[in-house]
């Protein structure tokens, strides 16, 4: 029997079952594993597939882009056709994407990116659907805050477990070579997806809310093109140049189609998202804070991933320790965050979480990559993780509580899209700022040093002066150095000569290391500014709002008339 939402008396409203809660948090855990899985293996992926700096950014964003583009539509699909089946389909897509990534042949970057897109599409179905299933079965502030706090804890657990999984599996031998073991992390993701599918199909109850909902294809197409064009321009700007025709064209296309999206949504009878939701101050402010805060958080995570794995060249297992520090506070603070949301104004809770993210990022920006030990950045990472746990729970509660339960699917879909739009912007903007800065510093250093120019010319000519057996390796090294700052840092400055003694090889290694350290410090600073701005907005505009205490049908109808 479907657990369909109604306006029945409170005594007969459908209650959240244990099986539904388990299925929702298992799927949420899986989706967050997909978000986080590249974090500790970026260095190995870079070494194995010889990616350009921008291509490495796409490895993370190939997953996040479909999450951002499709969440609104999947929120509607779940409302119309049932959330249980959609949650299972999402898990199966993550499984398919994980398997495709696992079977990526050497040098075939397109296969990995395709797998990430498929898995990200599955996550796009999971995030809003899992929240809507929880909202459908909870009808008081206490119950809903408790359920969403558990959901957020699963989100955080996925964030720190996936780097640990990736780090441990990267130690297993792979026939593809020294750095090919990154593939096992995606195999693990596929296995987790199968488990999630089974749990959903056997344990969860269905729910839906078809009243007033329909698929809005014009809205989906216009918002998808607009957001993708925006993200494409941001990511490619660092490589193609911000004034290039392709990048400028992408930004123009983004503006045109996002304006078209607004026009379409105002004209259709059953829009993808009712823009009137944004007339609700609580929802609008939470939307702004969501984008800023989640940008700051995943921008931090991406910068930390590159710092540890690609700049400082930690192994995946050692890199995973950094991500455990970043995420462990989410589990530690689980009972605390639940009580905070029950007893304190959610605006102040949200502001406090964002402030912690900002303060932690200020500290990270002040610690250069020349501090090679994890101890130097342990405390800032713990602070950022604590802020994220508090903020992500408060964001979801504030947004979903601002609308009636009958609109929970739409609100959770919109909130999830905004959250993951911010998350997608994190790697894109931080990567663009850091790589643009690093490339500029490296270029200036080369231009100002005659000896460096000479050494670099000799290095580029090296493939023509080595034995035939060594030529492919040297050619690959030259190509890596020409690919950008991360490639320049990945190739060693010295290699063993024929007599066994070390001899100069890549003259840009040290220059690139320091340039990247400075570039990603700027990235941390940008994340700090975004998070602190979000904290101020939440404190000023949400801090004075009273916390509602229940979601009775009469209140839902009143809220619906307001929205």
UniProtKB/TrEMBL annotation:
<feature type="transmembrane region" description="Helical">
    <location>
        <begin position="148"/>
        <end position="170"/>
    </location>
</feature>
<feature type="transmembrane region" description="Helical">
    <location>
        <begin position="521"/>
        <end position="542"/>
    </location>
</feature>
<keyword id="KW-0813">Transport</keyword>
<feature type="transmembrane region" description="Helical">
    <location>
        <begin position="110"/>
        <end position="136"/>
    </location>
</feature>
<feature type="transmembrane region" description="Helical">
    <location>
        <begin position="182"/>
        <end position="203"/>
    </location>
</feature>
<feature type="transmembrane region" description="Helical">
    <location>
        <begin position="12"/>
        <end position="35"/>
    </location>
</feature>
<keyword id="KW-1133">Transmembrane helix</keyword>
<dbReference type="InterPro" id="IPR011701">
    <property type="entry name" value="MFS"/>
</dbReference>
<dbReference type="InterPro" id="IPR020846">
    <property type="entry name" value="MFS_dom"/>
</dbReference>
<feature type="domain" description="Major facilitator superfamily (MFS) profile">
    <location>
        <begin position="20"/>
        <end position="546"/>
    </location>
</feature>
<protein>
    <submittedName>
        <fullName>MFS transporter</fullName>
    </submittedName>
</protein>
<dbReference type="InterPro" id="IPR036259">
    <property type="entry name" value="MFS_trans_sf"/>
</dbReference>
<feature type="transmembrane region" description="Helical">
    <location>
        <begin position="278"/>
        <end position="299"/>
    </location>
</feature>
<feature type="transmembrane region" description="Helical">
    <location>
        <begin position="55"/>
        <end position="74"/>
    </location>
</feature>
<keyword id="KW-1003">Cell membrane</keyword>
<feature type="transmembrane region" description="Helical">
    <location>
        <begin position="319"/>
        <end position="336"/>
    </location>
</feature>
<feature type="transmembrane region" description="Helical">
    <location>
        <begin position="247"/>
        <end position="266"/>
    </location>
</feature>
<feature type="transmembrane region" description="Helical">
    <location>
        <begin position="373"/>
        <end position="400"/>
    </location>
</feature>
<dbReference type="Pfam" id="PF07690">
    <property type="entry name" value="MFS_1"/>
</dbReference>
<keyword id="KW-0812">Transmembrane</keyword>
<keyword id="KW-0472">Membrane</keyword>
<feature type="transmembrane region" description="Helical">
    <location>
        <begin position="348"/>
        <end position="367"/>
    </location>
</feature>
<feature type="transmembrane region" description="Helical">
    <location>
        <begin position="215"/>
        <end position="235"/>
    </location>
</feature>
<feature type="transmembrane region" description="Helical">
    <location>
        <begin position="421"/>
        <end position="442"/>
    </location>
</feature>
<feature type="transmembrane region" description="Helical">
    <location>
        <begin position="86"/>
        <end position="104"/>
    </location>
</feature>
């Amino acid at each position: 029997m479907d657990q369909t939402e109604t306006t029945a008396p409170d005594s007969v409203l459908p209650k959240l079952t244990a099986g539904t809660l388990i299925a929702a948090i298992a799927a949420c855990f899986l989706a967050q594993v997909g978000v986080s899985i590249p974090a500790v293996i970026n260095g190995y992926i870079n070494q194995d597939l010889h990616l350009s700096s921008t291509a490495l950014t796409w490895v993370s964003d190939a997953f996040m882009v479909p999450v951002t583009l499709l969440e609104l539509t999947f929120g509607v699909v779940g409302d119309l056709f049932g959330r249980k089946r959609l949650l299972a389909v999402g898990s199966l897509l993550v499984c398919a994407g994980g398997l495709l990534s696992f079977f990526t042949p050497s040098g075939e970057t397109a296969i990995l990116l395709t797998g990430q897109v498929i898995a990200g599409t599955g996550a796009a179905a999971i995030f809003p659907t899992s929240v809507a299933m929880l909202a459908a079965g909870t009808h008081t502030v206490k119950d809903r805050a408790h359920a969403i706090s558990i959901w957020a804890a699963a989100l955080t657990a996925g964030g720190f477990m996936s780097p640990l999984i990736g780090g441990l599996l990267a130690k297993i031998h792979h026939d593809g070579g020294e750095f090919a073991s990154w593939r096992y992390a995606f195999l693990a993701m596929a296995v987790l997806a199968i488990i999630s599918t089974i749990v959903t199909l056997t344990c969860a109850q269905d729910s839906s809310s078809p009243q007033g909902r329909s698929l809005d294809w014009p809205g989906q197409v216009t918002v998808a093109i607009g957001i993708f064009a925006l993200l494409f321009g941001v990511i490619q700007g660092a490589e193609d140049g911000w004034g290039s025709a392709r990048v400028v064209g992408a930004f123009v296309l983004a503006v045109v189609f996002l304006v078209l999206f607004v026009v379409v949504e105002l004209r259709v009878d059953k829009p993808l998202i009712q823009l009137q939701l944004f007339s609700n101050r609580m929802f609008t402010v939470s939307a702004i804070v969501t984008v800023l805060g989640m940008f700051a958080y995943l921008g931090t995570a991406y910068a930390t991933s590159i710092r540890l794995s690609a700049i400082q060249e930690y192994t995946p297992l050692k890199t995973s320790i950094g991500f455990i520090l970043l995420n462990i506070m989410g589990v530690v603070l689980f009972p605390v965050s639940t009580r905070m949301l029950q007893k304190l104004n959610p605006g102040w809770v949200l502001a406090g979480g964002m402030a912690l993210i900002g303060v932690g990022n200020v500290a990270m920006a002040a610690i250069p990559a020349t501090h090679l030990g994890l101890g130097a950045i342990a405390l800032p990472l713990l602070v950022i993780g604590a802020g994220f746990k508090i903020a992500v729970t408060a964001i979801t509660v504030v947004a979903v509580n601002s609308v009636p339960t009958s609109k929970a699917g739409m609100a959770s879909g919109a909130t999830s899209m905004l959250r993951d739009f911010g998350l997608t912007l994190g790697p894109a903007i931080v990567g663009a700022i850091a790589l643009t800065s690093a490339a500029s510093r490296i270029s200036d250093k080369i231009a100002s040093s005659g000896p460096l120019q000479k050494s670099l010319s000799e290095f580029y000519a090296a493939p023509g002066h080595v034995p035939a057996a060594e030529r492919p390796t040297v050619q690959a090294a030259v190509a890596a150095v020409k690919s950008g700052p991360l490639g320049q840092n990945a190739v060693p400055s010295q290699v063993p000569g024929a007599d066994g003694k070390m001899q100069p090889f890549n003259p840009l290694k040290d220059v690139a290391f320091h340039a990247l350290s400075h570039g990603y410090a700027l990235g941390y600073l940008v994340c700090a500014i975004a998070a602190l701005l979000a904290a101020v907005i939440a404190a000023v505009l949400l801090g004075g709002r009273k916390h509602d205490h229940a979601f009775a049908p009469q209140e839902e109808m009143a809220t619906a008339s307001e929205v």
